[in-house]
């Protein structure tokens, strides 16, 4: 559009547009009026807060996401995570003993034989509490 | 007495208009309200031409008002108009994109052949209003209808440039700000739009 002198076509189209603006019906005018008031009302309404912190902020969003992630992490059972407990520690020690026994040291075999003798004595003692058979 | 000697000074102080702390903000709000009241119907018509739907046009205008009031109320009043139209045009473009996506999705869905819910337009609504003494109005309405039809057929950027420059009277710099492009682009889009529209409407309007 030429800033100073619009062509007849430009002038005509603008007049038609102005005419159509003037013919906007009352229902639409009313709704536009309501929309304008609603826009101002929405800005004066206090923002939602939790413990004094506005909820609609990036920081609040990040906190919510972090809480949700923590909740999911602790709520879901983790079968894949390696768990080191006292029981598993004891098993490792047993393995060490067996492994060292497999090295066939004479002391170890002798120790195992002593244990067998002890268990036999204990069983006999239980079946005959008065100790009559004990030599 | 000494206390009367201080009176003239005090009166001088009272003569200066005192503004309450929130008064300038209130003035700004009133000014913005007036700006929106002046512009809302024109904005609605521009949105309606682009979207061809009253409710969608109202939604887009309301959204633009809300965003302007919420985010840009503190800006100088001279900047409101290009800002408002930039928000409005963005809203129109977003809605048109959503419609395109929805249209593609709906093309894959089987739809009812007839209208079981009775949502079809009332045939009476499409009957021309034959109030007496309206031939002139009717001609104008038809001319405007043709213009709207041709505007919708234009590429979006050309339509925006034409409506902002011609209908809304924004200068090249304001239009460039509203469209988010260079002034050179505005001039190109506008001249192409005028050329196309003039060719299409020359016979109809003659």
Task: Give a quick summary of the entry.
The complex is a heterodimer of chains A (135) and B (206). In chain A, 67% of the residues lie in helices and 3% in strands.
Descriptive overview:
The complex is a heterodimer of chains A (about 140) and B (about 210). By secondary structure, chain A is mainly α. Chain A has a domain at about 85-125. Helices cover about 65% and strands about 5% of the residues of chain A. In chain A, β1 and β2 form a beta hairpin. The model of chain A has no long low-confidence stretch (mean pLDDT about 70). With about 210 residues, chain B is mainly α. Chain B folds into 2 domains: about 25-110, Rna Polymerase Sigma Factor, Chain: A; about 140-205, Winged helix-like DNA-binding domain superfamily/Winged helix DNA-binding domain (Arc Repressor Mutant, subunit A, Orthogonal Bundle), CATH 1.10.10. The longest helix of chain B is centred in the first third of the chain and has 29 residues, at about 25-50. Chains A and B meet through α1 and α2 of A and α3, α4, α6, α7 and α9 of B.
Keywords:
heterodimer, A: 135 residues, mainly alpha, 2 strands, B: 206 residues, Rna Polymerase Sigma Factor, Chain: A, Arc Repressor Mutant, subunit A, 2 domains, 74% helix
